Structures are given as structure tokens and as C-alpha cells.
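Exam revision sheet. Question 4 asks you to relate a sequence to its structure. Input first:
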Amino acid sequence: MSEAVPAVLATLKDESAMIRSTAVKALREIDIDPEIAVPALTEALKDENKAVRSVAVEALEKIKTAEAVHALEEYRQRSNKF
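Answer key, C-alpha cells:
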């Protein structure tokens, strides 16, 4: 695992939506184990900021594991309820 990954994961909790969004984009682009990325990105789907959620969707779509697909399905079901 890259030395940058823990720092990127930590920034997912930052106050700034722009920083959280950038962290999600970084997770989308770096070579990271899906077992680490998917839970973090699944949490990002619950972010209060729509841009963060949108980038998390893109990242999970890129990963394409069963867990990523499941997280996206649940997110889309929750989103359609509103």
C-alpha cells in the first residue's frame, strides 16, 4: 500500500467538502486495494455534500468489485426514496 493512502483516508473526514472530494478523487486514481477503498468510498456516499457523493459513485463504478456494485445499488435505492 502506498504511503499516501493513510493520509488520503484521513482527509475523507476533513471539514472542507473540497478536500473530501479531492481525497475521493485520489482514491479513484491511485492503485489501492479494493478492500480498503470500498469501505471508505461507501462512507463517502453518505457525505452531506453532493459533489463528494458524486465522485464516490464514479470511484466505485471504476472498482467494479461485488462489494462496490452492492454499495452503489444500496446508494441508488436510498437516493430514489427522496
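Marking note for examiners. The chain has five helices and no strands.
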